[in-house]
Amino acid sequence: MLAAKNPYIDSAYQQLQIISQDKQKRLEYEAREKAVRDHNQMMFEAEQRGKEQGEYNKSIQIAKNMLKKEIDINTIIEITGLNITDIEALR
Predict the structure, then answer these.
(1) At what angle do helices 73-80 and 23-68 cross, to 10 degrees?
(2) pTM for this one?
(3) For 6-54, what is the HEC assignment?
(4) What confidence tens digit (pLDDT) does each residue in 6-17 have?
(5) What is the pLDDT of residue 3?
(6) For all residues of the chain together, what is the average pLDDT?
(7) 24-47 CB burial, b ≥16 within 10 A, e <16
(8) Do 70 and 84 touch, CB atoms closer than 8 A?
(9) Contacts of 78 (CB under 8 A, 6+ apart)
């Protein structure tokens, strides 16, 4: 068994055995682990939304610059990936 070879793993294993016997402690541990996972997922989703918003804002700025240069709307749509409604709103 791996725990017998490593004192740190053995110590953790012993703690696990003790905690596993107490239903209340096990429930507290599981709730704590769920809270950590939920927090990490929330942070990941917020980061993703921030990236998407940043990309959108950059596309808007590029579209504005292209409109100033009087570039065709279809070309702007193709390059920026924005829809015609977004581009028309910039005019």
Answers:
(1) 150
(2) 0.58
(3) CHHHHHHHHHHHHHHHCHHHHHHHHHHHHHHHHHHHHHHHHHHHHHHHH
(4) 788 888 888 777
(5) 56
(6) 89
(7) eeeeeeeeeeeeeeeeeeeeeeee
(8) no
(9) none
